[in-house]
Amino acid sequence: MWNIMKKNMNFFVIYFVITTSLIGLLRIVTGRNLSVVFVIIGGILVFLLVFGSTLTNEQYEEKNKGYRFLDTLPVSAREIAEAKFSLVLVAVGLCVGFLLILITLSEGAPEAIVLARSYVLFIGVICLILSGVNYIGIFALGFTKYLIVIGVGWLSLGFVPMIVMKTFEGRMDILRDRILNFYAGIDWVMGVPLSLVIYFLLMLVAGKVLHAKST
Fold first, then answer.
1. Rounded to two decimals, what is the model's pTM?
2. Total domains in the fold of the chain
3. What is the DSSP code (8-state) at residue 73?
4. Which helix or strand (DSSP H or E) is residue 21 part of?
5. CB-CB contact of 80 with 210 (8 Å)
6. Left if phi > 0, otherwise alpha if psi is -120 to 50, otherwise beta: which for 187?
């Protein structure tokens, strides 16, 4: 598994360096006071790290027929899935951890800091689950076909903000309060382990899908 991780590590390292550098630069620009801009953009950068590195790596795999090459080696589909899922988990863990440290060291109201940490943890969990789903789709359909599927999916999701804004027209303060209460109410003592269990189950499914595809 370690050899497969090393083979896939380059793009993750590049994106991790870019992402953490941008987070550090953003922190310098916004200062030590807890900034909404820093927290929101920091969360977006976690998405950039995960999906930028994952999709770039899988595009490279397809271009160079990486999975056909792996089929010739004495490695199982589960080991391939474990290696790819482990890279994402490490990348998300380090990036989210970096953000949490910067947020904790920020100056601001304690409740605001707690809320910001909850938001970043939520983003990390969403990134893990979505990346797991992505790998299942890529293993099942291939990178190019799956890219078309998620392209259509993201296009459809573009209507969601319009629907939400129409539903809460003139009541955006209610929507804001509901979102903030949602983040504040998450029990991360239970949430983090549960998320890791879901991620592990997605990894098992991905391994089975890849095995079925290769045979």
1. 0.88
2. 1
3. S
4. helix 2-30
5. yes
6. beta
